[in-house]
Design a protein that fits this description.
The structure is a single chain. The chain is α/β, with parallel strands linked by helices. It is 40% helix and 18% strand. The chain has 2 domains: 3-30; 44-339, no CATH class. The protein has an 11-stranded mixed β-sheet with strand order 2-1-5-4-3-12-11-13-8-6-7, with helices on both faces. The longest helix has 26 residues, at 3-28.
Amino acid sequence: MSRNRYKIAVGAGILALGISLLAYFAVLRQDNPVWSPGALLNSSVESDHIDGQVFTIMDSSNKMLSKMSRSVTVGDELIRGDGRRYKIKTVNKFDARAEFVGMDRELLAMIDEYDNLALPTAGQTEQTGQQNWKNRPIAVYHTHSAESYIPTDGTESKPYHGGIFAVGDVFAEKLRKKGVKVLHDKTPHEPRDSNAYYRSRRTAADMMKKNPVTLVDVHRDGIPDPEFYTKDVSGANVTQLRLVVGRQNPKMQSNVEFAKRVMASANKIHPGIVKEIFMARGNYNQDLMSTAMLIEVGTHTNSREEAEKGAALFADALPTILGVAGTTPGGGGYGPTSQTPSGWITIAWILGVLILGGGAFLLISSGGWDKARQRLSSFWGQEFSGLGSPAKKPGEENRDKPEGEQ
């Protein structure tokens, strides 16, 4: 084989390999997250949620904004229930500093919208589910299935039988009482390591076959302070919830919009039940659909009974918000088939790999940058030199040549 043919073969091989890998991760393997370079780092961050570990987020005036056991990284964002939005600027060990970036106008508009819509009160919501939901279920599962509540379960972790399942049971039962069909999958996904979300993705992908209107991954936090989540909501002593959205997720924009609507609606029905939205580095399987949610119901030092009450109050909001948003058949806005930027992002990655692969092929087969530029220039010159000129009829191509050249 000549040297030029060898270069061509190598270049073609690199291009074919790049296209094959991208197709495998981004298109064919729907049980894996939509591919992006950030996904290479997501698994370690997603698993770094250690009970007893506390990341504290402070603002510029040294006021505490939030705290959590999941890792906090530069670029993460926090949206509080009052609409104040912050972005993490520095992280020094477990001390994170956030900058106020303004009031979230979209969330404030949603809060105002639900105020004017006069959403049903807590007592009225029992009758709203049947007419809105028809046959589309809410899918509930647990990536960290060992999570438990010390005061009730006697331990923070019960592999394969975590107290978090009981919280999911109460959440699901409250929805069923409202006339909503619920899929509650209790498949364990131990151990709680960097592959937990890959294991739970198989569960979520199976549930997607039932055409759910939303996927809810139920967790709890791991900070030692139970008072951080404890609150009197609608006359009951319950734990508040946090909504978590993955930033390395092509559906992030629609996931965040959905989370804002859920928080605005839930806090309209039960003021203060949703504490905040946190946008963390990771995917959390939320690329599966626009309405995927990760909720944290209290922390491991709260009693499970308080967490169950909080989950039950949160369940009041979901049929209302999804019904108002138009997820029922014939509606628009949310659901597995909602239009989101994810498809275009995947296409953009495919085009990017094709361009890079094509460039590598051209460079290797040409033998250097100068020859590659010459070859590309020659190609464009030949292809577009006659663009815009009228096509010549047969025989005319020799008409303008000297007689000796015809």
